[in-house]
């Protein structure tokens, strides 16, 4: 894009394009280090000087000055007009300033206008320097002719001036020819090295009254980087309404919104300034703490975005090419050609923070922003953001096709009662529904009695590094569960799906079992909930449940597929999405008083034509790991074509009729809070009672020691097959990693018999029978009436 037009001439940045009614010619000038104590006065004054001189010659241009430089642009109708414009601009820029010349009046008008647009506070000088915007420092005096001449001589020369042109090839050629044909330009004064923020400056707190509504707050984060391309690319990510900064700010207790993100190229790098606003109604009573949480989050997110952003060296050219107006294209190209890189700062990002608070309408006269309180609160919030809050469990499996991230609350369904059974499942399902527009990466709800969360997984994109892949998957999981408010549409779809499932036979049977085994807490047995629990809650109730999950303990499991750096990248990505408060304690709710199972038989009515079934459940001691393991082995011994259940439910000896049950199985449900050994039987209505009686008799025999070594061996084989199948599934491996449970040693036959003797009591059984209701018996005959 840059083109040399000869020694002693400013460089020319070109954008060749057809179709415009005219072309654009522009000039960019750097005033870095010139009258720096006067802020934008030098840039504004020089722009006004040149614009007024050109206007007097009948050359219409637009000139704008700011902090660190000024820019000029003109519309040129044809290539034949270029030489005159370029010559006029050169003369206007290089002619010395004379006392009393007419252009000085325009300079003073522009400086007076600058004074009427002052910075809200001197603390914002670094912000103005970052963005280059024309703000005054108060009553800015206009320059004397001698001062203006000194500034002009220092700035208007090679090294500080660049031309730009956008238009046809003929117009571009004519511009280059005009610059080359003119006399050589003087050498401008060398710019001093830029003073970069050290990153250790105290937070700038200022009175923003008049800038924002009363009682509101504004947070501004600036970040300087040695490469202007990184600044511009990072600004695009920071300003995206769907990106991390906007989403994380919106999810805070006191939501904040991005007001603007401005990136500016400078001679020694680039700078980004992100402005974030907080409404007075959201700040509530604890203003310093709420401002501090948003400010620390914003500073962290800007630093992360700057560190993670890479940009190609031709970004400046593409910025110019994307302009619609040729004058914009020429101006961008010219300004970008002045941008450079700062040695030693290519990858560094020096971040500074500024906080403005507008005095509330009802504040006492003379009230000001509580600067000391805000700074102290930001220090505490920054420490909180730096301290990890997510428990991590990681493993690397080289060569796998995808990276897997499971983020969930280990509280599971503990907080749920009968009134909201399934609310956690609704939150997880809605989060997954809302997030599944992520291309080839997928998000699934993960709901169990001991966990409520989401599971995200996906392959690497072409050219994507392993760490970037893991960070993307981690962001996807954390954004879904911890970062964004639930979308009402996603909530509706989640509820609809769960209600449809809750109306099915299996869910109704499990719901009845849960009501009997864990009275008041049916989701301790069936984590997907009941129709009543899912259907009775409002969107606000689910929002509160989601907030409780986010504010409680969270655990992440990362199954990396390339190298260990992925795990660290994914965990950091997840952790930064989790909002936190200084001094908070993340813990699951205190478990309610242990519930006592209600033994007995419970009925679930079926519609005509449905296949009856029964569920027999033996409660286990909560929290007893040995009992759970023994129950798992007992369930394996009961199940299968050659299992104890199949033999007990077979045809009587010597009979040729079919078996009592068409299907049977056993499993352990409800761990860890309401564990049961559950046996399911499916049979014809006429045989269901007999099948239940046979199972009860089998359990009694086992209680009396009927378990044999061959039954234990068969259970071992069955469990080994199940473990092998699970080991082949990365989803199951990720879940196992999240739980972190080590394989339990195989129980002896004596341990299994001891478990049966202490647990399999008939009087403890909970039986749920699902069958078609039988018609009531006919009324008895009246003997006196002879009937």
Which descriptors would you attach to this protein?
single chain, 787 residues, alpha+beta, Cytochrome Bc1 Complex, Chain A, domain 1, 4 domains, 26 helices, 21 strands, 19% strand
Q: How would you concisely characterize the structure shown here?
A:
With 787 residues, this protein is α+β, with helices and mostly antiparallel strands. The chain folds into 4 domains: 2-181, Metalloenzyme, LuxS/M16 peptidase-like (Cytochrome Bc1 Complex, Chain A, domain 1), CATH 3.30.830.10; 204-311 and 338-386; 390-577, 2-Layer Sandwich (Cytochrome Bc1 Complex, Chain A, domain 1), CATH 3.30.830; 600-771, Metalloenzyme, LuxS/M16 peptidase-like (Cytochrome Bc1 Complex, Chain A, domain 1).
Low-confidence stretches: 651-658
Q: The CATH topology of the largest domain is what?
A: Cytochrome Bc1 Complex, Chain A, domain 1
The class by helix and strand makeup works out as alpha+beta
Tally of DSSP helical segments: 26
Radius of gyration: 37 Å
* Domains, number: 4
According to CATH, the homologous superfamily of the largest domain is Metalloenzyme, LuxS/M16 peptidase-like
Any guess at the CATH architecture of the largest domain? 2-Layer Sandwich
Q: Averaged pLDDT, please? A: 91
Instruction: Give a count of the beta strands, DSSP E runs of length 2 or more.
Output: 21
| N/C terminus separation | 110 Å
Q: Quick one: overall form?
A: elongated
Strand order of the largest sheet: 1-2-6-3-5-4
The biggest sheet, with number of strands, parallel, antiparallel or mixed sense and barrel status, is: 6 strands, mixed
């Amino acid at each position: 894009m840059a083109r040399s037009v000869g020694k002693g001439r400013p460089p020319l940045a070109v954008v060749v394009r057809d179709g415009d009614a005219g072309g654009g010619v522009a000039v960019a000038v750097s005033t870095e280090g010139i009258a720096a104590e006067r802020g934008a006065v030098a840039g504004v004054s020089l722009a006004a000087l040149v614009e007024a001189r050109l206007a007097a010659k009948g050359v219409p241009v637009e000139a704008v000055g700011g902090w660190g430089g000024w820019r000029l642009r003109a519309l040129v109708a044809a290539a034949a007009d270029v030489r005159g414009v370029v010559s006029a601009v050169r003369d206007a820029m290089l002619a010395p300033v004379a006392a009393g010349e007419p252009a000085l009046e325009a300079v003073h008008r522009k400086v007076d206008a600058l004074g009427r647009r002052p910075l809200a506070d001197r603390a914002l000088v670094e912000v103005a320097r970052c963005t280059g915007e024309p703000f005054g420092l108060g009553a800015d005096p206009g320059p004397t002719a001698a001062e203006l001449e000194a500034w002009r001589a220092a700035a208007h020369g090679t090294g500080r001036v660049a031309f730009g042109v956008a238009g046809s090839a003929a117009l571009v050629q004519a511009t280059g020819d005009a610059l080359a044909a003119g006399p050589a330009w003087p050498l401008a004064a060398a710019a001093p090295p830029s003073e970069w923020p050290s990153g250790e400056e105290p937070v700038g707190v200022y009175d923003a009254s008049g800038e924002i509504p009363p009682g509101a707050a504004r947070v501004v984060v600036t970040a300087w980087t040695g490469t202007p391309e990184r600044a511009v690319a990072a600004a695009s990510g920071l300003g995206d309404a769907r990106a991390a900064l906007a989403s994380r700010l919106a999810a805070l207790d006191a939501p904040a919104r991005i007001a603007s993100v401005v990136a500016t190229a400078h001679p020694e790098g680039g700078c980004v300034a992100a402005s974030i606003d907080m409404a007075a109604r959201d700040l509530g009573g604890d203003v310093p703490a709420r401002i501090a949480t948003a400010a620390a989050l914003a500073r962290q997110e800007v630093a992360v975005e700057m560190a993670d952003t890479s940009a190609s060296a031709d970004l400046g050219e593409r910025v110019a090419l994307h302009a619609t107006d040729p004058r914009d294209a020429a101006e961008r190209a010219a300004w970008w050609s002045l941008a450079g890189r700062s040695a030693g700062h290519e990858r560094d990002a020096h971040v500074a923070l500024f906080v403005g608070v507008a005095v509330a309408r009802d504040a006492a006269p003379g009230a000001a922003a509580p600067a000391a309180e805000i700074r102290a609160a930001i220090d505490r919030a920054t420490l909180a953001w730096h301290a990890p809050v997510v428990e991590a469990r990681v493993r690397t499996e080289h060569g796998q096709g995808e990276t897997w991230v499971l983020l969930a609350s280990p509280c599971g369904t503990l907080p749920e009662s009968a009134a909201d059974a399934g609310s956690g499942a609704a939150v997880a399902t809605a989060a997954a529904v809302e997030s599944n527009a992520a291309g080839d990466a997928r998000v699934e709800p993960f709901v169990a009695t001991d966990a409520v969360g989401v599971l995200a997984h996906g392959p690497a994109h072409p050219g994507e590094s392993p760490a970037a892949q893991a960070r993307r998957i981690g962001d996807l999981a954390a954004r879904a569960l911890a970062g964004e408010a639930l979308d009402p549409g996603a909530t509706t779809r989640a509820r609809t799906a769960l209600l449809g499932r809750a109306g099915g036979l299996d869910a109704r049977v499990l719901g009845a079992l849960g009501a009997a085994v864990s009275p008041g807490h049916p989701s301790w047995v069936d984590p997907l909930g009941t129709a009543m629990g899912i259907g009775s809650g409002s969107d606000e109730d689910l929002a509160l449940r989601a907030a409780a999950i986010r504010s409680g303990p969270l655990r992440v499991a990362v199954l990396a597929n390339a190298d260990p750096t992925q795990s660290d990248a994914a965990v950091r990505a997840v952790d930064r999405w989790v909002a936190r408060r200084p001094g908070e304690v993340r813990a699951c709710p205190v478990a309610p008083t242990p519930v006592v199972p209600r033994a007995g038989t419970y009925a679930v009515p079926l519609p005509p034509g449905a296949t009856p079934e029964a569920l027999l459940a033996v409660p286990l001691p909560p929290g007893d790991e040995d009992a759970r393991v023994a129950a798992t082995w007992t369930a394996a011994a009961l199940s299968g074509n050659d299992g104890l259940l199949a033999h007990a439910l077979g045809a009587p000896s010597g009979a040729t009729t079919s078996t009592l049950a068409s299907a049977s199985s056993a499993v352990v449900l409800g761990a860890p809070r309401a564990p049961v050994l559950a046996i399911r039987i499916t049979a014809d209505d006429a045989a269901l009672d007999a099948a239940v009686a046979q199972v009860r008799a089998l359990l009694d025999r086992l209680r009396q020691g009927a378990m044999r070594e061959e039954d234990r061996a068969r259970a071992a084989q069955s469990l080994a097959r199940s473990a092998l199948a699970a080991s082949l599934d990365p989803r199951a491996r990720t879940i196992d990693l999240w739980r972190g449970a080590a394989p339990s040693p195989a129980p002896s036959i004596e341990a299994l018999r001891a478990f049966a003797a202490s647990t399999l009591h008939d009087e403890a059984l909970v039986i749920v029978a699902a069958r078609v209701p039988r018609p009531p018996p006919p009324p008895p005959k009246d003997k006196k009436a002879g009937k």
